[in-house]
Amino acid sequence: VELAETGGGLVQPGGSLRLSCAASGLTFDLRTMGWFRQVPGKEREGVSCIRWNGDSTLYEDSVKGRFTISRDNAKNTLYLQMNSLKPEDTAMYFCAADRLAYGLAPDAYTYWGQGTQVTVSS
Fold first, then answer.
1. CB atoms within 10 A of CB 1
2. Under a CB-based contact definition with an 8 Å cutoff, are residues 48 and 37 in contact?
3. Closest listed residue to residue 113, CA positions, set 9, 10, 19, 15
4. Which of 41, 108, 115, 118 is the Cys-Cys partner for 92 at CB 3.0 to 4.6 Å?
5. Is 99's pLDDT higher than 90?
């Protein structure tokens, strides 16, 4: 199983980024997928997740209205559109997959990518 995140980078406050997570080696369209983030010295936190068919999503309170999670099962790819970025969004962002989990608790997810760094700074 491989999850590969791309799309991170340096962006000014108020800017946008779109993260992608390409999956291989698993039945992508039967998995809940999630985005998580972590800063050094802090625990990994859930940002958003989406059910296998895309009909249900969850967001952490601080990103509601700014971030949008989506998936393309035909392309085995997960996305996170991040708008109105703030300095406090700076973190390493990870995607994760699990067959049974649904929620923002990192411990519930089995498969993880290596992460992509997002830095929001002027």
1. 12
2. no
3. 19
4. 115
5. no
**Strands 17-24 and 2-6: what pairing?**
antiparallel
Q: How far is CA 10 from the centre of its chain?
A: 17
Phi, psi of 116 (to 5 degrees): -135, 135
Kindly indicate the confidence band of residue 100, based on its pLDDT and cuts at 50, 70 and 90: confident
Instruction: Give the torsion sign (CA, 80, 116, 27, 111).
Output: negative
By the 8 A CB rule, do 54 and 112 touch? no
> Which tokens belong to 64?
């509601």
Q: Which amino acid is at 76?
A: N
Paired tokens of 60 = 């952490």
